Amino acid sequence: MKNNFDLNNYPLWTALVTPFTDAGEVDYAILDQLVAQQQAANNGILLLGSTGEGLALTLKEQQAIVEHVCQLNPTVPLMVAVGGMNLKQQIAWVEYCNKLPIHGYLLGSPLYAKPGVIGQTHWFENLLDASVHPCMLYNVPGRSAVDIPPAVISNLKNHKNLWALKEASGDIAKFEGFRNAAPQLAIFSGDDALMPYFAQAGAKGLVSVAANAWPTQTHEFVKRSLSGQHPNLFADWSQAIQSLFAVANPIPVKVLMHLQGRITSPYLRPPLTHLELTQTDCISNANNTILSWH
């Protein structure tokens, strides 16, 4: 596998779903196909994020998935998610992945505990120190229950392994706060629908859920957003994107991928279930809209 990727050359990263069989086992044959689809679209691949149901997998499953994808030798870079609230365990996970031919980490803020500036600085600094790869920090207060304050980014901005930030609070003002704290930091939108706005504010790209279902179309969406020449993109995409978040991610996108034939089962690990999505008209309509979009 190539190890000399310039991660800044990949403005779209797909937060890859983890495909399961109806029995709830990882479906490696389908995983191969999903990797090939993202590779064909030239999208970077993020493994084991929240969209990949990473926290619902056992450590052995997490290890097996990363090793399996590495053995596929994709021609696009791989990023691996690091998340939880036990720092020792997360450092051990980073040290394990350091030995594999991956290219970056997504470092989530600690779950549930709600640490402040000092606690978060300590958390991220230890993970950055443990890494041998560039790292993207992840601000997602809707899942972690705490924002990353700009002061944390300011404290870490000179760390050699800090490459980027995924901003998924949905608040453009917070994006500006991060830019002011670390002007050289690459900031990626974590919200598909907000990508045109974030691009206007100086975002470098998108970490996407939608790209699972629409790899090439989402790649073009990001390209056009970054060009700044398509002011009507939000209207074209927002309704379609919203359908993928009608209930908790990644339920709708997995149901849609099952309808598309990309995955053989819409199974999700508990506590998530595809039964939460009681009607599929919205995602089917969204699929028709995006697949006819050009």
From TrEMBL:
UniProt site positions, description: Part of a proton relay during catalysis: 50, 112
Predominant location category: cytoplasm
Active site: 138, 166
One GO cellular component term: cytosol
EC number of this enzyme: 4.3.3.7
Example of a GO MF term: 4-hydroxy-tetrahydrodipicolinate synthase activity
Pfam family, one: DHDPS
Keyword Amino-acid biosynthesis on entry: yes
Compartment(s) of residence: Cytoplasm
Known pathway: Amino-acid biosynthesis; L-lysine biosynthesis via DAP pathway; (S)-tetrahydrodipicolinate from L-aspartate: step 3/4
InterPro entries: Aldolase_TIM, DapA, DapA-like, Schiff_base-form_aldolases_AS, Schiff_base-form_aldolases_CS
Domain of life: Bacteria
Database matches in SUPFAM superfamilies: Aldolase
Annotated binding of pyruvate, by residue: 51, 207
Record function comment: Catalyzes the condensation of (S)-aspartate-beta-semialdehyde [(S)-ASA] and pyruvate to 4-hydroxy-tetrahydrodipicolinate (HTPA).
Record family assignment: Belongs to the DapA family.
Subunit structure: Homotetramer; dimer of dimers.
Protein name: 4-hydroxy-tetrahydrodipicolinate synthase
Lineage start: Bacteria, Pseudomonadati, Pseudomonadota, Gammaproteobacteria, Alteromonadales
Gene: dapA
